[in-house]
Amino acid sequence: MSKNLESIDRMFGIWNTTDESEQRTLAEAALEHNVHFVDPRHNIIGREQFLSMVRQTQAEHAGLSYSRSCEPQWQNNHCRYHWSIHSGDQEVMTGFDVTEVTDAGKIVKVIGFFGELDRPVTASGQQN
Question: How many structural domains does the chain have?
């Protein structure tokens, strides 16, 4: 799964640089041309649209850093992982993604969620 993990880390690299040439190089290595990215604020398709979304977000929220906050859990060509966004040493947002990669290791879909999930409820309706 190392090529898959490299693609995920390259995707975070896109968020963490403002150099457009570096962003494009990372995007071409990590994302399929028709990547689908959806979260509570976005629903875009395409590598160029992804880059535009990142640049717009960076312009609106300058100086933030984005990172995985756990090792991905893999199932076939899908994985899930938690992430966090920091401003300096302060965590400003958390969430998790469910990501699909191709057999070649490129990201084809990212479904992002903001925040944490509530604790699971048992069949009897009690929280664990």
Answer: 1
CATH code where residue 30 lies: 3.10.450.50
Q: Which residue segment(s) compose the domain that 81 sits in?
A: 2-114
pLDDT higher than threshold 80 for residue 76 = yes
pTM above 0.85, yes or no: yes
Specify whether the CB–CB gap between 16 and 39 falls below 8 A: no
